[in-house]
Input
Amino acid sequence: MTQMTKNFDSREFNCKCSKCRHYQPEIIDLSFVETLQKIRDELGPMIITSGYRCREHNEIVGGSKNSYHLKGWAVDIIAGDWPRRIRIIKMGLEHGLTVGLGRGFIHLDRRDNQIMFHY
Output
């Protein structure tokens, strides 16, 4: 385990694949994690349900072939209630991230400030 920021450690970004369960520290973009830390400082704890993904796991979960999860530049987090979702969306956009809205989760990645919908 490597402490990446004040509150995030490398385990949170591990692939959730039952086969590889690996994390590649050279892939995870530290500036992205630092941006997530700024959001966490304002919002409080955030539970990452998906960080880095290997290609096999990304395919299994139906991720895009060009998913930012493959690059270590994306996370999905538990969304919570609507007031919390709105705060996450607002903060993500304020920090220049792309925000994706899914059922029960919010996707954040390094693309330029846009909103996506996952169904």
Remarks:
- The mean pLDDT is 88.
- The chain has three helices and five strands.
- The first strand starts at residue 48 and ends at 50.
- The two ends are 33 Å apart (CA to CA).
